[in-house]
Amino acid sequence: MDNSVYVSVTRLRSLTNLIDITASNIANMASTGFKKEGALFSEFVKKADVEGGSISMADARVRTTDLSQGELSLTGGVFDLAIVGDGFFRIMTPSGEALTRAGAFSRNADGELVTADGHRVLDEGGAPIFVSPEARSISVAPNGTISADGAPVAVIGVVRPTDPTKLERLHGSLFVSDSGTEPAGDFSIHQGYIEKSNVQPVLEMANMVKIQRAYELGQSLMDAEDERIRSAVRTLGTQS
Length: 240
What we know:
Elements: H1 3-27, E1 37-47, E2 54-65, E3 72-74, E4 81-85, E5 88-93, E6 96-100, E7 106-107, E8 113-114, E9 120-121, E10 138-140, E11 145-148, E12 151-155, E13 158-161, E14 167-171, E15 174-177, E16 181-183, E17 187-191, E18 193-195, H2 201-239
Helix pairs in contact: 1-2
């Protein structure tokens, strides 16, 4: 395959990944606690018999996560909780412990605090949180202490990944930390609020247009190169 085709293919593959990432950001711009994704570009330079002595090919397979704070939205819900600052809520999924910033919680039939998907929310010791259905007044302090009728019943587990670069997205607003977790330090919990997605819709839509234009340009270059090669083959064929 011609060097120019190799370069074009790697570019189009990277742009395809960017389109997928940007589309995911746009689809989740209204998802509670969602953190927008990006891509980390790498470059492979190979010696070649061309002008300059080398060719460069790009790749964008590594995804990144923007952990910046999302805007808070007032809901007034007793079990709607938003973290301001560092950290994630600990929850238990069928696949094991996970992390999330989506704090739209509720109480299930057993009195356990759960996420919108039914995953149990964990306390600072890793145990499910039970809030008696008979409790008339529920309050959550900024440090995560849950009180029922004035008596403390649990402390919500808020942790951060030991190594943020090893934070892996399961899907949507759920993450796992391959490096383990540690107690979060600088945070406060706001009861009656949820954290909105940190996606900026206008910026993401503009990025999508730019990426699609770049993809179309790359495709046009490949089509032109393909026609050049075909023309050269036809010319050589008539001369033989």
